[in-house]
Amino acid sequence: RGYKNSRSTGGCIVRLVLLGKPGSGKGTQAPIICEKYGIPAISTGDLIRAAIRNETELGKRFKEFTSKGELVPDTLVVEIVAERLSQDDCSGGFLLDGFPRTVAQADALGDWLKSKDLKLDNVVYIDVPNDILVERATGRRSCAESGRTYHVKFAPPKVEGICDVSGKALIQRDDDKEEVVAKRLAEYDEKTSPLVGYYREKSLVKQVDGVGAMNEVTQRIAEQLG
Question: How many CA atoms does the CB half-sphere of 53 hold within 13 Å?
């Protein structure tokens, strides 16, 4: 887009936001996109955990909220993202995953980018219907001993309910239970879904069908980004 940088594909700087509901495949596709364009993935969850672990000034302020189970205010989240985007490795572009989560955060990101005379190139939205996301999540099973993950429909073990590696019984994680998954999706629909409309109005959204094999979704993203 006119920005020159030798590290990124085609000599262009690429600044992206990745949107998608829990279980839509963002975590799988993010590293693939980052490798293609030679850009870092910025995950707010990782940033916050690292800040708390390293007891930075921002980390201490985050802990005041997280230790009480309270949501971290937008201003703090924006501050830590802005701090990360100011680092040298983001000069060639970046992929934001898990941020922004709300329209208020998107506004703040836009203001920060504008203040630096920068702008987003695209917002990739991986679209998967809720019923499929529930099926993906509730069918997951894992083995505490081997760390292997299975799916009752898409990647079953050789013997039902038993890990191929350890021979131990597989378990369903609490956050993969239907009521928990449904709650997370409802929260996303309420708070984060409006972001798609927000960025659509700015003609930034590249919507990708997230149903199908991983490499098929990767191909669709590549076609949309060109």
Answer: 6
Q: Which of 21, 101, 136, 220 is catalytic?
A: 101
Omega of the bond leading into 100 within 30 degrees of 0 (cis): yes
* Full-model pTM: 0.84
Active site residue 136: no
Helix axes 74-85, 44-53, angle to 10 degrees: 90
What is the rounded distance in angstroms from the CA atom of residue 17 to the CA atom of residue 92?
Answer: 15
Tell me the torsion sign for CA atoms 103, 218, 204, 127.
negative
140 is catalytic: yes
Is 101 one of the catalytic residues?
A: yes
Who's near 192: CB < 8 A, 6+ residues apart?
A: 19, 21, 101, 102
User: pLDDT of 78-94, one tens digit each?
Assistant: 999 999 999 999 999 99
Amino acid at 218: T
Choose the catalytic residue: 21, 136, 140, 141: 140
